[in-house]
Amino acid sequence: MARSTLLAALYCLIFLNCLEPLISWPANDKDAPAMSHPDFDQYLGEYLKPGDTLALLLDYDGTLAELTSHPNLTQMSDEMRESLRNIADSGKAFVAVISGRDVDGVREKIGLENIIYSGNHGLEVLYPNGTRHNQGIPSDVANNFDKMIDHLNREVVHHGSWVENKRVSITFHFREAEQQYVPEMAARAKEIIESYGYRANPAHASVEGKPPIQWNKGLAAEYILGTSFDANWRQRKVLFAGDDTTDEDVMKMIKGTGRSFRVTKDKDLVTNADYKIPSVDAVYHLLKWIESRVA
């Protein structure tokens, strides 16, 4: 009897180990299992019913497209683009992409007409009808922009680092730089950026230089939703996915009303998102799930 009980328990363990783990887990659960294939019904099934209308907000780099050594190399897959197009064209979904890239750059990368693009972490907004909205930048700071870039190029651009000029903000990239030089060059880049009146913020293997105005992706999302709908936009279903620290402001803004996903493989990462998902491929499965709901 004891032997049969032991065998039954062993078979049960083997069976459980063969089950596919879930793709997402409660955002700050450090003991969550490894992830593979999605089951978004478990996380969004009660929130987004078939036929519901929603607002879908997304980051681009690291969310809709894999991160690469150079932003020009980043490509969104045809499958991801097609799913995003189907959602935007469904008549039941409002889609906006809020990126750290300049607004024309992210529009060129995605290439869809029926969505709102926001660039420079929300400082620029481009609507499908061609209307633009830009947050005001103090003229004395704006006049320092070219000087700041020139100074960065002269002093800290070496050993594989470079400056991305996004017209309103800059990103000092050191992803491909020799590691021994990174701490010193990143610290000096921060000093230079701040000396010209810009805010320096850490990002993925980079330092962002932004105008000193109280604006971020969360405020941009709130502005886009408020101007696209009405004062009651929070009663709509809102979903967001992003992979960077700059995306946390959106996650915080919709906390408790919308649902958000942080793209990361780091189980220990503390986030404002409701759930974590591990990859761009997981975002694709999320879009396919949404597509099935709004089709």
From TrEMBL:
Coiled coil: none annotated. Its cofactor is a divalent metal cation. Pfam families: Trehalose_PPase. It catalyses: alpha,alpha-trehalose 6-phosphate + H2O = alpha,alpha-trehalose + phosphate. InterPro entries: HAD-like_sf, HAD-SF_hydro_IIB, HAD_sf, OTSB-like, Trehalose_PPase. Belongs to the trehalose phosphatase family. This is Trehalose 6-phosphate phosphatase. It comes from Anopheles epiroticus. The lineage of its organism: Eukaryota, Metazoa, Ecdysozoa, Arthropoda, Hexapoda.
